[in-house]
Design a protein that fits this description.
Helix content is 82%, strand content 0%. Helix 1 (2-28) runs antiparallel to helix 2. The longest helix is centred in the middle third of the chain and has 52 residues, at 30-81. The radius of gyration is 27 Å and the shape is rod-shaped. With 96 residues, the chain is an all-alpha fold. The chain has helices spanning 2-28, 30-81. It is built from 2 helices and no strands.
Length: 96
C-alpha cells in the first residue's frame, strides 16, 4: 500500500500542474478556453474512471486479505481458548 501511496504522491505533482494550467489558460485566453474545455472534460472523466477502477481493485485485493486474516484469527482464538472458552458457560461455580 505504501508503494501505491508513493506512486500517487509522485504523480500528483505533474497532474496538479497540468490541471492548474488547464484552469488558468482559459481565463487568460477565452478562445483557447472554449477549445480546451472538451479536452479537459475528457481528461477529467478519464482520471475519474482510472481512479475508481484502481480503488476497486485495491479494495478487492485488501478485502480478501482482511477476510483471510480475520478467519485465521478466529480459528487461532478457538484453538487457544478450547471448546469451552473458560468452561463456565455463564454459570458461576462455588469455590471448593
Amino acid at each position: 500500500m505504501a508503494l501505491f501511496e508513493d506512486l500517487m504522491e509522485e504523480a500528483l505533482g505533474p497532474v496538479a500542474i497540468g490541471i492548474g494550467a488547464l484552469l488558468v489558460v482559459p481565463a487568460l485566453f477565452p478562445s483557447v478556453g472554449r477549445a480546451l474545455r472538451p479536452i479537459a472534460k475528457g481528461a477529467i472523466k478519464t482520471g475519474i474512471s482510472v481512479y475508481e477502477r484502481t480503488v476497486a481493485t485495491i479494495a478487492e485485493a485488501t478485502g480478501d486479505l482482511v477476510a483471510e486474516a480475520r478467519s485465521e484469527l478466529e480459528s487461532e482464538s478457538h484453538r487457544v481458548a478450547g471448546p469451552e472458552r473458560g468452561g463456565t458457560h455463564g454459570h458461576a461455580h462455588a469455590p471448593t
